[in-house]
Amino acid sequence: MIEQQTTGTTSHTRWRDLLRLATSVLALAVVVFFLARVLSANWTQVRQHQWQFHWPFLAFSFLSLIGSYLVDIAVWRYAAHRLGGRLPYRRALRLYFAAGLAKYIPGTVWQFFGWFYLAQREGISKLVAGTSIVICQALSALAGALLALAAFAMRGSQQVVYQLLPLVLIIPFGLLVLQPRFVAAVLNWGLARIGRQPVSLDLSFRDLATVFVLYLGSYLLWGLALFLFANSLTPLSVQHFAPFLGVFPAAYALGLLAPFAPAGLGVREGVLAYLIGFFVPLPIATVIALLTRPWMMVVEITAGASALISYARQPRQDSHAG
Questions:
Q1: Cα separation, 129 vs 93, whole angstroms
Q2: Which residues contact 200 (CB under 8 A, 6 or more apart)?
Q3: Domain ranges (residues) in the chain
Q4: Cα(189)–Cα(23) distance, integer angstroms
Q5: Are 54 and 232 within 8 A, CB to CB?
Q6: What pTM does this model have?
Q7: How far is CA 55 from CA 32, 82, 290, 298, 301, in A?
Q8: Helix 89-100 / helix 109-121 crossing angle, nearest 10 deg
Q9: pLDDT tens string 204-234
Q10: CB neighbours of residue 109 within 10 Å
Q11: CB contact at 8 A, 94 and 307
Q12: Integer Cα distance of 36 and 43 in angstroms
């Protein structure tokens, strides 16, 4: 009887996984089909466009992109430090880029699982690792949503603002995470559910506000990087700079909401193409959006591979998991 139940459960799980995979592939195929159709129908316009290749803009775009990653790492390290975790920046850098490789696996959670695991390998407790990651992701989402909405509202693009209204759902939760008592209450509720003793968090509103403000700075660097990258391919007016800052935060947030796509693959490019299309013709925006993927991968895969080599050469640190 038990064997039959186990077999039935395994079969149900297998079919559910297959259905999820089929749905993921279908949704991704729809996005890819849309992008391919835009390029195919407008290939003459793409070929005749006055493309340029501006090396200085491309070089500075990489510098700004790397800067945004470095700020993200510093923000998480700061949050972990305020929660009692101690980690040199060099090791936090290695951890971040090694875990980042996992986002190219279908499912948005793998990067965070890798982050959680490697933090323990670096001597950060489970409690500090998990809490710091959740706090940082919530406040990063809040910063990104607010910046995206503000940037397009500044441009006067009411149509885009209305279409980005789902991001407004992030705002109430993000504002709650700015309250230390709320964070402590939710954490202790979760600990009670797994039979653990409650803890006292040494977090202040100032700590959480600092994390939020630093994430705004990171997104500003991202916006600058994307603007410079686009300008390395085709000229954009400086007047577009301020509203352009909202493009990446919106695309990143919506990409995270697509768990079937590795690193938001396809979905993020589709959103980028649509949003960049408010500044240049849609076929040109589609080309720029597609080229952002190898642009980002140059940094992420190079740094991630270096991080994995570093881990392979260094003995495992004692973990204080708890």
A1: 15
A2: 184
A3: 2-313
A4: 34
A5: yes
A6: 0.78
A7: 29, 41, 19, 16, 21
A8: 150
A9: 888 889 999 999 999 999 999 999 999 999 8
A10: 12
A11: yes
A12: 10
